Structure formats: structure tokens, C-alpha cells
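Give me the fold.
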Amino acid sequence: MNNSSPDRWFNGWTLCLACLAVYAPIFWMLPLSRGESMYALIPQEMLISGSWLTPTLNGVPYLDKPPLLYWLNLLSYKIFGVSDWSARLPTLGLTVLEVWLTYLIGRRLLGTRAAWLGGFVLLSSVGFCAFHLNLLTDHLITVSLAASLYSMMRWQEDYAFTWMALFSLALVAGFLSKSFIGVAFPVLICLLYALWLRQPRLLSLIFSPKGAALAILLIIPWGVWVEKAHPGFLMHQFINEQFLRFLGQRQPPDIIPFSIWAFWVFLIIWLMPWTVLLPEGLIKFWRETRRDKREAWLLLIWAGVILGFFTLAASRIEYYHLPALPPLALVVGWRLDRYLAAPGDRWPYWALLPIAVVAMLILSLMPHMEALCASNRREFIGLASLVLPLVKPASFIMPTLALAGILFGRRRPGIVTASFIALALALTFLTFLSLYALSPQLSDKIPGQYIRDHASSQDVIVMEHIEEFEFGASLVFYSGRRLLMVQRNGLPQFPYPVAPQDNYIISPVQLNELWHGPARVFLLIDDASAGEPYLEGARVALRTPSKRLLVNRP
């Protein structure tokens, strides 16, 4: 088998079906976590209000992010009704689309089999699985970026207006997903690619008057309308959420960034088990493509721009690697393709050994993983103890799979590759099981449903010890009730003015007054947080593994 006569199974359809086979059975099984629920709650409130242009969160205008993901989820609600699984349905579509676009780009740069293997590496990596089971605007950024680069490649082959229009539409989608960086990433990558190939004609695509006119026609009306309805929106969106966030001076300072070393450690984790093939694969790829196949360096430029930008940025979050995963996965796919074509190649065979060693040490590594995650978000405290029952059998299964590949794969690239695939699928399943085990801690579905069933319309719902006001969305979504949040040490805090009647952030003094007042109050508090002295001995209406729902009166 070779790239000039590819096997009929190595095509985009089989890859998309493989992606659906992995993700479709599990995407609807996880409750919405605190970190993702705002992308489900905002379109629900837009559906109720009938306004598609002003996002609201817990009843207050939410101006931090552009609306494309809200619109997609809103369409899903209108077709399938409001639920957590219908909120995730567009993300499932984006997951398949991202894998397919990765394959299309790889097929043009590397060949059919290498592209297929790269797409499979992507869909079966730990980080791709963990985050594509969550609602994030970063999925849209990655898809729009891949779509723009694919359109650029097609335009190189055929200077047709169709590809110019698709390039511009991809930039519009990126802008409506995450504002300036949704445009800056593809434009910067294309500029560097044009310089590398010494093809100034590519600049006519990037700075096309027709493309710019199309983008302006689609973007400007939305920006003007929102600015008119909410004066100061543009300043907040472009200065506070883009420029100041990059410098680490965004207000309020409610984001705890990871250090540079932690950011790169997460990249190693997210690409597992394929990470062991990446360093040597990058060196080999650089050496073999820099002269004879210069176009393939698009992958290195693509990954370098994303990782370089966020390494320099003062705000680094664990999922900011996502737009860099497709090109890195394609490099690994290229390396596997070369290995399958050259049985004398030994590195992938020996790369199974460090995987076996790390898998044997996974139990001892879990406390360090918890400490790393908890340094960013308090809700990850206790992660190790919840995941430990799953990790114990994995610490035997994964070394066995790796050692089996070493035992039976000598001079048999197919068996070694099959061992990697088995490891990847086992890790993907472990990732899902871990998220499921953590869901009572990461999500407020259980207390939300309790409140929906037991609270009256006159009862007051309060959330205690929360750093970001967005993290209350899970409780609001599942309870169907607007809530109040207690501010401590200046957080949570709105980054823009909020009308007094809409402000749902209260002080500890106001909580004390509510608790001892005539109304019944339900108070959700994390076990990791210390409560006020007057809450000691309070009636516990509901207890989950990490939270208590207190009530001041029967």
C-alpha cells in the first residue's frame, strides 16, 4: 500500500464515520459543567426573549464574546428543544467538521494515507476528546481557521472567486467566534506562508477588495447594532477582551493563567498517546520537506503561530492549544505513514516503551495533575480521589497494550501502529469515564434539579464562593431560576456597567440579611470553601461529593 495507490478505506468518509463512532455515543451523557454552561444558557435566554442580537447571562447582557456559537445552539434549540444534549449537538458537528477539514488539508500536503492517519491521531488524542465533549468557542476558531487555510490552498490551485469568498466567510466565522484573533490567526499564517513560498500573489487573496467587502458587509451591521444598543461594547470587546487580556491586564482579573511550563506540559498531555512520536516526527518532517515539499511547512507555520502567540500571552488557559492540534496531528500522521512504508524504521517501535513506563507511573502522577489543575480552578480539588478507581485498571491495561506492541511488533509496523491505536482508544474511553466521574463536582445539575423540584417562585437562590460570574450558568440552566452570587475579595465582578435592577452580585452583609430574613434561601457552597460562622449547623437540603445545598428554613 502506498500514497500513489491508496487503500479505498483511507478516505474522508471513513474518517468522519470513525469520529462519529467515537463521539456520538458519549457526547450526550455528560451534564453541562460550570465552565461550559454559559454557551447553553445564553441561547436559551435568547430563545425566551426573542432577541438574537443581545446575549444575556442570568438576565444581564453578556458582551464578552461574539455570538456565533450562541446562534448555532439557538438553532439547535428551535429544532430539538432546550436540553443539555441539544446544546452539545452543534459541537458534535464541529468535531466531525474539524476532523474532515484536517484530512482535506493533509491530503493535499501529505497524501491520502498520511492525512487519514493524521485525522485519526487528532480525534483519538486526549485533549481533543476532553474538550470536544464540552461547549467552547475555541472549536469554532479551529474550524474557521482550518476552513480559511483549506480555501487558501484551493485558491492557489484555481484563482476562482468561490475560494476567495469561502476564505472571507471563514474569516467572518472566526471573527464572530472570538473577535480579532479569529481573523488574526489565519491572516498571519497566510502571510508567513506566502513569505516562505515567495508567492506574493497570495497577498491578493488576503487583501482582496471583494473579500474585504463581503466580510465588512457581514460583520459591521452586527457591531454597529450592538454598540448602539450597548454603548461601550466595542471598547470592551476589542480593548479589554483582546488587547488587555493578552497583556494579562483584563478587568476584572478573574482568570488565573497557567505558567509557560504548565502550558507546554498540557500540550504533552493533550496529544497523548501520540506525543512520543511528535518530537522526532517534527525533526524528520523539517528535514524532508524544507526543500522538496515546501508547501507542507504550512503545518509548522500553523502550529508555530498558535503556540507562539499563547506562549507570549500573559493569559494562558488549558484549552488554548486546541487550534494547534490539527497541524501537529498531521505531522504525527505523516510520521506513521513513513513508518508503515519503511519496515526498517525503528523509532515508533521503541516509542512504545516510554508510554509503558508513563502508564505504570500514572497512579503516582495523579496528585501532581490535581495540583496543576486546582491551581487554576478550585473545583478540581479532589480530582485524584474521584478518578483513582478508573486509573488503577488503566495502569495495568495501557502498559499491557504498549508492551504487546513491543513484543509482537518487531519489524511489523502494522502491529506497532495497531498498538498505538488501541492505546489511543483506551485513553479516549478513560478520558470520558474520568469526565463522567468528575461531573458531579464540575456540574451543578444535581443541585439545580433539586431546586427546580423543591423551590417555590418566592424562594431566593444564592451561590457562594465563585470567582467568575459565568460559572453560575450551570445552576441557572438546570434550576430554571435566576440566582444571586456573593462577592468576596472583589470577585465575581462585572467588567462593564450593569443596571442596579439587573445586578445579581451581593455582598456578604446582604447574604447575612437574606439568610436571617423572612424568605427561604437556598445557598449552594463548595466543600472546599469555608462558610460563614452562622452557617455552621445549617440544614443541608442536598449533599453531593463536593457541594452542599443549604437552606435557612424548612
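The chain has a mean pLDDT of 90.
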